[in-house]
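Posting this for the archive.
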Amino acid sequence: MPILVGTCGWSYRDWRGTFYPPEVPQRAWLSYYADHFATVELDNAFYRLPSYDMFAAWRDALPGDEVVAVKASRYLTHIKRLREPAEPVGRLVEHARGLGDRLGPILLQLPPNLRADRDLLAECLAAFPSDVRVAVEPRHESWWTDDVRRVLEEQRAALTWTDRLGHPLTPLWRTSEWAYVRFHEGRATPWPRYGQAALTSWVKRIAEAYEDDADVHVYFNNDPGGAAVTDAAAFARVARKAGLTVTRTPDTP
């Protein structure tokens, strides 16, 4: 599969007039988005877990090739802090199954003050069904140990590669045969855009670490002013120029 490029969410009001034409009603934004991107990270599941029926409604609004990554509920990551994962993981997966074959990876974004706990992570990852891919985004430096890396590798979970201001926030470990990359904030003008040099560097990192047929999920989280849409399209152009295969993106200047 090619590099899947999209954004973290799609329902931002300030995208009206920048990405969404003014005449397109908000209820049609997801369909419009899917015409221009083949993947999206569903980040609103973090704040309130949608029902199975809501996930199914999104599935019905999407074309057959759309891949939906799901950001795990904060109940699992921030309230339970990975403890006693069986029930929250089971409920999360049960609801997300409403996406059917559109379901992509599930992202576990850990709290920035959650220190490394190898056993907690191993128990949480083991609670997921074997057919569900999981990406983990730790945000405390204590996680960067060989023990943690081994847990990710044993569970075939992807360490999420993240960027802020053009620099990696994580080690560039390859812990699975697939990858998950998130862009939080660039340093170009206007804020929070990414510049050509930063995007080129990331394309090179991905190309050096993964074969062209690997599943590489790339999502832009710098949503203000539609920067995520513009930068996702720019990233795709750089990747295509480098000879990589990329899913559909908008034809933005």
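The beta strands are 3-8, 39-42, 67-71, 103-109, 134-137, 158-159, 161-164, 167-168, 179-185, 216-220. The mean pLDDT is 97.
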